[in-house]
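pls design
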């Protein structure tokens, strides 16, 4: 199994760490690895930097993410991949919208033409904001403890979205659906990175399925047009144990 050697571990927030490493692997922004945590599980993680020094930014939810987030310099991130299609990168003005750890795979898309919206439940969930030009960044939190009080879609509604060549969105599916519902008939170009339960990462187990697509193999990035044809989007998904659950 391949591995990255951690050179630095940066604490981004109470339960979020960025692991830095150098490696000559080629990665398209938005692609992910299945990171193997011996004796625990393997979990999908995307890259918050795709050029050396590369990085992954890990939010702690359970045992696997906790073990990874606490790796020390010199320790190894075992992985398979990179997997998935990644974002289609366009020239011109872009808007990235990320919620919570969903901002991580959007960071490699940033350039001088990028506007950002970062959303989170509260100030502790706002990460990687220092990567943005503060003049073109909007922060929103559910409780108003950082930036403006409200949701990402409310910040989006205050922008002239016709200004943007492409809108890139990543975060919990409920947030993706809210953005999708707002933009779907507005004639803008949009790409959404979906987070679904993943066990294999290579199209075998079907745990990440949505309307006949497998998010690990056909995604995780889907266009607005693709999502328009998926009635499961924002409505239902499979839990890790395979049970169908509703949002
Ligand atoms: C394509 C893809 C890319 C991803 N990239 C990143 C990334 O760059 N950085 C990152 O931090 N995470 C990323 N994730 C999410 C990450 O894979 C999960 O957070 C991880 O699998 C959690 O594993 P665990 O074993 O630590 O927690 P588990 O034991 O699986 O979960 C513990 C508890 O937390 C809940 N939980 C787990 N993950 C999430 C979540 N994402 N949102 C809300 N609740 C959750 C579970 O339902 C459970 O109740 C990505 C997911 C996908 C599908
Ligand atoms: S994670 Fe197994 S098919 Fe997608």
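designed seq:
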């Amino acid at each position: 199994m391949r591995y990255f050697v951690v050179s630095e571990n940066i604490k981004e927030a109470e339960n979020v760490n960025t692991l830095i490493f150098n490696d000559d692997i080629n990665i398209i922004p938005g692609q992910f690895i299945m990171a193997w945590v011996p004796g625990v599980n393997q979990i999908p993680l995307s890259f918050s930097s795709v050029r050396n020094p590369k990085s992954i930014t890990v939010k702690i939810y359970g045992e696997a993410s906790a073990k990874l987030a606490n790796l020390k310099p010199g320790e190894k991130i075992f992985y398979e991949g990179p997997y998935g299609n990644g974002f289609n990168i366009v020239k011109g003005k872009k808007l990235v919208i990320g919620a919570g750890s969903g901002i991580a795979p959007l960071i490699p898309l940033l350039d001088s033409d990028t506007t950002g919206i970062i959303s989170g439940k509260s100030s502790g969930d706002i990460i990687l904001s220092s990567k943005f030009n503060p003049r073109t960044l909007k922060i929103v939190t559910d409780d108003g403890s950082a930036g403006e009080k409200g949701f990402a879609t409310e910040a989006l509604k205050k922008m002239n979205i016709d200004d943007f060549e492409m809108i890139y969105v990543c975060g919990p599916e409920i947030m993706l659906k809210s953005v999708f519902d707002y933009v779907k008939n507005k004639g803008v170009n949009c790409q959404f990175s979906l987070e679904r339960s993943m066990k294999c990462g290579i199209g075998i187990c079907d745990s990440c399925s949505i309307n006949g697509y497998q998010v690990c193999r056909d995604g995780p990035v889907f266009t607005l047009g693709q999502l328009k044809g998926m009635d499961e989007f924002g409505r239902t998904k499979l839990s890790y144990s395979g049970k169908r659950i509703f949002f």
